[in-house]
Amino acid sequence: MALLSELNDSKEVETILKEIRDEDMEKLIKIRERSMQLALRNLSSIAFGLLSESFTLQNLQFKQIFWDTANASISEFVKANDRVRPVKNLSELKKRLVGDFRCYGVFHEALKMPVSFVFLRLYKGLASNLLNLLNDEIENKSELNSCVFYSISSPMKGLNGIEFGSKLIKNVTATIQKEMPQIRMFSTFSPITGFRQWLGKNSCKYQHLTDLQTTEQVAEYETELMTACAEYLDKKRTENVVARFHYRNGANLGPIRFAADPTNESFKQSYGIQVNYIYYQ
């Protein structure tokens, strides 16, 4: 522990500590004898404490990620690590980084890549459909009055438990309000992870909704699914980690959107249902 504390003064220590807490550490915990498990867990806990002290607002930088050659490696990093709305190719990545679309990241001096990043679009009102959000053309820029966060990721496993997303949202909100005072509404277009599993855990009540196979079947139960989803996202008792994150950061539950994301992953998670969390309006 003394060694780690001394290392904490080094500019490279954050990288070392992060690696201690990375996935390989978890693999070691699984295969070692009990005494080694305890030692490794203690080491991980110490590393987490030191990382938490290092990754404070004073040591973080918030930057917009642009589409240019200087940021090619960073652009590739966000392309490879967006698990919420996976980027298919470089053409799609470029579209997400120019014009009304933006990406902002949280950076630490010891690490080359962002520890957290958010994709957003300057938009007109709330988003109700993923394809419309990503593809609609708004020619009259004076109509832009909202900012929609549609993907937030913190991809470095070694930094799990350190809250970056809330800092990022607050910083981006302030940046955009200063640049574009007409943007007064900040909201999300969010997946509803775990909804189908939750239906299964409440099968006595929702047995007939647990294993729908086609969009046609889902459409038949739209009213019941929307009612169940509202229950699942209830602020006082939700198990959904995304909802809890946004509620904790001051957002309110907005409209729940039926058949809003046509991707296979969304169907597996929530039958394609998405939700808006609203920050300022």
Please characterize this protein's 3D structure:
The protein is an alpha+beta fold. Helices cover 44% and strands 17% of the residues. Helix 2 (13-20) runs antiparallel to helix 4 (34-54) and helix 3 (23-31) packs antiparallel against helix 4 (34-54). The protein is globular. The N and C termini lie far apart (48 Å). Mean pLDDT is 83; it is low at 1-14 and 45-52.
What layout of secondary structure does this protein have?
Blueprint: H1 2-7, H2 13-20, H3 23-31, H4 34-54, E1 60-64, H5 72-81, H6 90-95, E2 101-108, E3 116-123, H7 130-135, E4 146-153, H8 165-179, E5 185-188, E6 190-191, H9 195-201, H10 203-206, H11 215-220, H12 222-232, H13 241-248, E7 252-257, H14 264-270, E8 274-280
Parallel strand pairs: 4-5
Antiparallel strand pairs: 1-2, 2-3, 3-4, 5-8, 6-8, 7-8
Helix pairs in contact: 2-4, 3-4
